[in-house]
Q: What sequence folds into this?
Protein backbone atom coordinates (compact mmCIF):
# COMPACT_ATOMS: atom_id res chain seq x y z
CA UNK A 1 0.00 0.00 0.00
CA UNK A 2 1.35 3.44 -0.89
CA UNK A 3 1.21 5.82 2.04
CA UNK A 4 1.72 9.57 1.89
CA UNK A 5 2.77 12.37 4.21
CA UNK A 6 -0.74 12.52 5.64
CA UNK A 7 0.33 9.51 7.79
CA UNK A 8 3.07 11.52 9.45
CA UNK A 9 2.68 12.61 13.09
CA UNK A 10 5.83 14.71 13.37
CA UNK A 11 7.90 16.24 10.56
CA UNK A 12 11.29 17.92 10.74
CA UNK A 13 11.90 20.46 7.96
CA UNK A 14 15.55 21.43 7.52
CA UNK A 15 15.99 24.73 5.68
CA UNK A 16 12.66 26.03 6.95
CA UNK A 17 13.74 29.63 7.56
CA UNK A 18 12.93 30.67 3.98
CA UNK A 19 11.71 29.67 0.53
CA UNK A 20 10.62 26.14 -0.24
CA UNK A 21 11.30 24.69 3.23
CA UNK A 22 9.35 27.42 5.02
CA UNK A 23 6.40 27.11 2.67
CA UNK A 24 6.29 23.31 2.89
CA UNK A 25 6.52 23.51 6.69
CA UNK A 26 3.46 25.79 6.83
CA UNK A 27 1.53 23.60 4.36
CA UNK A 28 2.34 20.47 6.38
CA UNK A 29 1.18 22.24 9.53
CA UNK A 30 -2.19 22.89 7.85
CA UNK A 31 -2.81 19.23 6.95
CA UNK A 32 -5.97 17.81 8.55
CA UNK A 33 -3.77 15.15 10.19
CA UNK A 34 -2.31 18.01 12.34
CA UNK A 35 1.33 16.88 12.56
CA UNK A 36 3.86 18.56 14.80
CA UNK A 37 6.26 20.48 12.54
CA UNK A 38 9.83 21.08 13.68
CA UNK A 39 11.49 23.85 11.71
CA UNK A 40 15.28 23.91 11.39
CA UNK A 41 17.90 26.31 10.07
CA UNK A 42 20.60 28.70 11.27
CA UNK A 43 18.60 31.95 11.61
CA UNK A 44 17.12 31.83 15.10
CA UNK A 45 14.94 34.94 14.68
CA UNK A 46 13.16 33.31 11.73
CA UNK A 47 12.68 30.07 13.67
CA UNK A 48 11.21 32.08 16.57
CA UNK A 49 8.90 33.96 14.22
CA UNK A 50 7.57 30.65 12.81
CA UNK A 51 7.25 28.96 16.20
CA UNK A 52 5.18 31.90 17.44
CA UNK A 53 2.49 31.16 14.85
CA UNK A 54 1.37 27.80 16.33
CA UNK A 55 1.83 25.44 19.28
CA UNK A 56 2.47 22.68 16.75
CA UNK A 57 5.47 24.48 15.18
CA UNK A 58 8.75 24.03 17.07
CA UNK A 59 12.08 25.64 16.22
CA UNK A 60 15.50 23.96 16.37
CA UNK A 61 18.63 25.82 15.40
CA UNK A 62 21.01 23.75 13.30
CA UNK A 63 23.89 24.32 10.92
CA UNK A 64 24.02 21.24 8.70
CA UNK A 65 27.71 21.90 7.96
CA UNK A 66 28.65 21.68 11.65
CA UNK A 67 30.29 18.27 11.21
CA UNK A 68 29.40 14.65 11.87
CA UNK A 69 29.61 14.68 15.68
CA UNK A 70 27.52 17.86 15.94
CA UNK A 71 24.92 16.29 13.64
CA UNK A 72 24.95 13.11 15.73
CA UNK A 73 24.20 15.26 18.80
CA UNK A 74 21.49 17.14 16.90
CA UNK A 75 19.75 13.89 15.87
CA UNK A 76 20.01 12.45 19.40
CA UNK A 77 18.56 15.61 21.01
CA UNK A 78 15.82 15.94 18.39
CA UNK A 79 14.68 12.33 18.86
CA UNK A 80 14.83 12.66 22.67
CA UNK A 81 12.53 15.70 22.48
CA UNK A 82 10.34 14.44 19.63
CA UNK A 83 10.23 10.61 19.80
CA UNK A 84 7.25 10.66 17.42
CA UNK A 85 9.36 12.11 14.59
CA UNK A 86 8.62 10.09 11.48
CA UNK A 87 9.52 12.40 8.56
CA UNK A 88 12.40 14.65 7.56
CA UNK A 89 12.39 17.12 4.69
CA UNK A 90 15.89 18.06 3.54
CA UNK A 91 15.38 21.52 2.05
CA UNK A 92 18.59 23.15 3.31
CA UNK A 93 20.72 24.16 0.35
CA UNK A 94 22.91 26.78 -1.25
CA UNK A 95 23.78 27.55 -4.87
CA UNK A 96 27.11 28.93 -6.08
CA UNK A 97 28.41 29.93 -9.52
CA UNK A 98 31.80 28.66 -10.73
CA UNK A 99 33.52 29.37 -14.04
CA UNK A 100 36.15 26.71 -14.71
CA UNK A 101 37.53 28.86 -17.56
CA UNK A 102 39.10 30.79 -14.68
CA UNK A 103 40.33 28.02 -12.38
CA UNK A 104 42.29 30.52 -10.29
CA UNK A 105 38.92 32.02 -9.31
CA UNK A 106 37.34 28.71 -8.32
CA UNK A 107 37.17 28.87 -4.54
CA UNK A 108 37.63 25.24 -3.51
CA UNK A 109 36.59 25.97 0.10
CA UNK A 110 33.30 27.39 -1.14
CA UNK A 111 32.90 24.43 -3.51
CA UNK A 112 33.44 21.97 -0.65
CA UNK A 113 30.99 23.87 1.55
CA UNK A 114 28.36 23.61 -1.21
CA UNK A 115 28.98 19.85 -1.45
CA UNK A 116 28.73 19.48 2.34
CA UNK A 117 25.56 21.57 2.57
CA UNK A 118 23.74 20.04 -0.37
CA UNK A 119 24.90 16.43 -0.21
CA UNK A 120 27.24 15.16 2.52
CA UNK A 121 25.22 16.62 5.40
CA UNK A 122 22.06 15.08 3.99
CA UNK A 123 23.41 11.56 3.50
CA UNK A 124 24.97 11.84 6.99
CA UNK A 125 21.69 12.93 8.60
CA UNK A 126 19.73 10.22 6.76
CA UNK A 127 22.18 7.63 8.12
CA UNK A 128 21.84 9.03 11.65
CA UNK A 129 18.02 9.10 11.56
CA UNK A 130 17.71 5.61 10.08
CA UNK A 131 18.02 3.53 13.27
CA UNK A 132 14.94 5.41 14.55
CA UNK A 133 13.05 4.93 11.28
CA UNK A 134 13.92 1.22 11.23
CA UNK A 135 12.51 0.94 14.77
CA UNK A 136 9.28 2.58 13.57
CA UNK A 137 9.27 0.09 10.71
CA UNK A 138 9.42 -2.81 13.20
CA UNK A 139 6.33 -1.31 14.88
CA UNK A 140 4.58 -1.25 11.50
CA UNK A 141 4.73 2.55 11.34
CA UNK A 142 5.68 4.41 8.17
CA UNK A 143 8.39 7.03 7.97
CA UNK A 144 9.42 9.47 5.27
CA UNK A 145 12.77 10.65 3.94
CA UNK A 146 12.11 13.68 1.73
CA UNK A 147 15.13 15.04 -0.16
CA UNK A 148 14.68 18.24 -2.16
CA UNK A 149 16.79 17.89 -5.31
CA UNK A 150 16.28 20.10 -8.39
CA UNK A 151 15.38 20.10 -12.07
CA UNK A 152 19.13 20.69 -12.46
CA UNK A 153 19.71 17.16 -11.12
CA UNK A 154 18.27 15.97 -14.45
CA UNK A 155 19.78 18.51 -16.88
CA UNK A 156 22.73 20.37 -15.36
CA UNK A 157 23.04 24.16 -15.53
CA UNK A 158 26.67 24.78 -16.50
CA UNK A 159 26.86 28.15 -14.69
CA UNK A 160 26.29 26.35 -11.38
CA UNK A 161 28.22 23.13 -12.17
CA UNK A 162 28.96 21.97 -8.62
CA UNK A 163 25.41 22.74 -7.45
CA UNK A 164 23.97 20.66 -10.31
CA UNK A 165 26.37 17.83 -9.44
CA UNK A 166 25.28 17.87 -5.77
CA UNK A 167 21.64 17.71 -6.87
CA UNK A 168 22.37 14.85 -9.30
CA UNK A 169 23.96 13.06 -6.33
CA UNK A 170 20.85 13.61 -4.19
CA UNK A 171 18.65 12.37 -7.04
CA UNK A 172 20.72 9.23 -7.52
CA UNK A 173 20.84 8.58 -3.77
CA UNK A 174 17.06 8.94 -3.54
CA UNK A 175 16.53 6.27 -6.20
CA UNK A 176 19.00 3.89 -4.54
CA UNK A 177 17.51 4.35 -1.06
CA UNK A 178 14.00 3.91 -2.46
CA UNK A 179 15.10 0.53 -3.86
CA UNK A 180 16.87 -0.52 -0.65
CA UNK A 181 13.80 0.30 1.49
CA UNK A 182 11.31 -1.23 -0.95
CA UNK A 183 10.38 -4.01 1.52
CA UNK A 184 10.02 -1.65 4.49
CA UNK A 185 7.66 1.11 5.59
CA UNK A 186 10.37 3.71 4.99
CA UNK A 187 9.34 5.88 2.03
CA UNK A 188 11.72 8.08 0.05
CA UNK A 189 9.77 10.92 -1.59
CA UNK A 190 12.08 13.10 -3.69
CA UNK A 191 10.81 16.61 -4.45
CA UNK A 192 12.28 17.91 -7.73
CA UNK A 193 11.55 21.66 -8.02
CA UNK A 194 11.87 23.86 -11.10
CA UNK A 195 12.99 27.50 -10.68
CA UNK A 196 10.89 28.65 -7.71
CA UNK A 197 10.45 31.92 -5.83
CA UNK A 198 12.91 31.90 -2.89
CA UNK A 199 16.04 33.53 -1.48
CA UNK A 200 18.39 30.98 -3.11
CA UNK A 201 19.71 33.39 -5.76
CA UNK A 202 19.73 36.60 -3.67
CA UNK A 203 23.53 36.55 -3.19
CA UNK A 204 24.05 36.20 -6.97
CA UNK A 205 22.07 39.40 -7.62
CA UNK A 206 19.84 37.57 -10.12
CA UNK A 207 16.63 37.52 -8.08
CA UNK A 208 14.98 40.51 -9.86
CA UNK A 209 15.50 38.87 -13.30
CA UNK A 210 14.57 35.36 -12.13
CA UNK A 211 11.43 36.60 -10.39
CA UNK A 212 9.96 37.30 -13.85
CA UNK A 213 10.09 33.60 -14.76
CA UNK A 214 10.11 31.59 -11.55
CA UNK A 215 7.16 29.55 -10.31
CA UNK A 216 5.39 31.33 -7.43
CA UNK A 217 5.97 29.58 -4.12
CA UNK A 218 2.23 29.08 -3.55
CA UNK A 219 1.81 27.20 -6.87
CA UNK A 220 4.92 25.11 -6.26
CA UNK A 221 3.85 24.23 -2.72
CA UNK A 222 0.40 23.10 -3.85
CA UNK A 223 1.93 20.80 -6.50
CA UNK A 224 4.67 19.43 -4.26
CA UNK A 225 2.17 18.79 -1.43
CA UNK A 226 -0.12 16.89 -3.84
CA UNK A 227 2.78 14.52 -4.61
CA UNK A 228 3.72 14.18 -0.93
CA UNK A 229 0.13 13.40 0.05
CA UNK A 230 -0.04 10.70 -2.65
CA UNK A 231 3.30 9.31 -1.49
CA UNK A 232 4.94 9.61 -4.93
CA UNK A 233 8.58 8.54 -4.87
CA UNK A 234 9.50 11.19 -7.48
CA UNK A 235 7.75 14.56 -7.39
CA UNK A 236 8.96 16.65 -10.33
CA UNK A 237 7.17 19.99 -10.64
CA UNK A 238 6.85 22.43 -13.59
CA UNK A 239 9.65 22.18 -16.16
CA UNK A 240 11.31 19.55 -13.94
CA UNK A 241 8.34 17.31 -14.80
CA UNK A 242 8.85 17.88 -18.55
CA UNK A 243 12.56 16.98 -18.28
CA UNK A 244 11.74 14.04 -16.02
CA UNK A 245 9.42 12.61 -18.73
CA UNK A 246 12.19 12.82 -21.35
CA UNK A 247 15.25 11.72 -19.37
CA UNK A 248 14.14 9.92 -16.20
CA UNK A 249 11.05 7.86 -16.98
CA UNK A 250 11.69 4.20 -16.17
CA UNK A 251 15.00 4.85 -14.34
CA UNK A 252 13.65 3.98 -10.90
CA UNK A 253 12.20 0.66 -12.12
CA UNK A 254 15.47 -0.16 -13.92
CA UNK A 255 17.48 0.59 -10.75
CA UNK A 256 15.14 -1.59 -8.70
CA UNK A 257 15.42 -4.47 -11.19
CA UNK A 258 19.21 -4.31 -11.16
CA UNK A 259 19.19 -4.20 -7.33
CA UNK A 260 16.92 -7.24 -7.09
CA UNK A 261 18.97 -9.09 -9.71
CA UNK A 262 22.19 -8.39 -7.77
CA UNK A 263 20.62 -9.49 -4.47
CA UNK A 264 19.57 -12.74 -6.14
CA UNK A 265 23.10 -13.30 -7.49
CA UNK A 266 24.58 -12.69 -4.03
CA UNK A 267 22.17 -15.25 -2.58
CA UNK A 268 23.12 -17.85 -5.21
CA UNK A 269 26.86 -17.26 -4.63
CA UNK A 270 26.60 -17.83 -0.86
N1 LIG B 1 14.34 28.04 -5.53
C1 LIG B 1 14.67 27.29 -6.57
O1 LIG B 1 14.60 27.73 -7.72
C2 LIG B 1 15.07 25.86 -6.36
C3 LIG B 1 15.03 25.00 -7.47
C4 LIG B 1 15.39 23.68 -7.29
C5 LIG B 1 15.81 23.23 -6.05
N2 LIG B 1 15.85 24.09 -5.01
C6 LIG B 1 16.29 23.56 -3.72
O2 LIG B 1 15.31 23.82 -2.74
C7 LIG B 1 15.91 23.85 -1.45
C8 LIG B 1 15.41 25.10 -0.73
O3 LIG B 1 15.98 26.25 -1.36
P1 LIG B 1 15.17 27.60 -1.55
O4 LIG B 1 15.06 27.81 -2.99
O5 LIG B 1 13.97 27.59 -0.72
O6 LIG B 1 16.29 28.64 -1.03
P2 LIG B 1 16.35 29.58 0.23
O7 LIG B 1 15.16 30.45 0.30
O8 LIG B 1 17.70 30.24 0.14
O9 LIG B 1 16.34 28.55 1.46
C9 LIG B 1 17.45 27.78 1.78
C10 LIG B 1 17.30 27.24 3.18
O10 LIG B 1 18.46 26.45 3.46
C11 LIG B 1 18.92 26.77 4.75
N3 LIG B 1 20.35 26.53 4.86
C12 LIG B 1 21.34 26.91 4.03
N4 LIG B 1 22.53 26.55 4.53
C13 LIG B 1 22.29 25.92 5.70
C14 LIG B 1 23.10 25.35 6.70
N5 LIG B 1 24.45 25.33 6.61
N6 LIG B 1 22.52 24.77 7.76
C15 LIG B 1 21.17 24.78 7.90
N7 LIG B 1 20.33 25.31 6.99
C16 LIG B 1 20.90 25.89 5.92
C17 LIG B 1 18.58 28.26 4.92
O11 LIG B 1 18.45 28.55 6.29
P3 LIG B 1 19.48 29.43 7.16
O12 LIG B 1 20.17 30.39 6.24
O13 LIG B 1 18.62 30.10 8.20
O14 LIG B 1 20.40 28.43 7.76
C18 LIG B 1 17.23 28.32 4.24
O15 LIG B 1 16.22 28.00 5.16
C19 LIG B 1 17.42 23.84 -1.69
O16 LIG B 1 17.92 22.55 -1.49
C20 LIG B 1 17.54 24.23 -3.15
O17 LIG B 1 18.71 23.72 -3.73
C21 LIG B 1 15.50 25.40 -5.13
A:
Amino acid sequence: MVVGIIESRCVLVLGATSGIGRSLALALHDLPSKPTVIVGGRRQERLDELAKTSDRIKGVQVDVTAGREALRGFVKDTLATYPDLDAVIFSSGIQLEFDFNHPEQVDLDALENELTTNYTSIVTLITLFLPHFLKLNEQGRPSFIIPVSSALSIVPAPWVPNYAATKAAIHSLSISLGAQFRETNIRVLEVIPPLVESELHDHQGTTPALSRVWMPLSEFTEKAMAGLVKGNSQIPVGFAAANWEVFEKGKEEKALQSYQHTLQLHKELK
User: Anything to note?
Assistant: Residues 108-138 form the longest helix (31 residues). Residues 5-269 form a domain with the Rossmann fold fold (CATH 3.40.50.720).
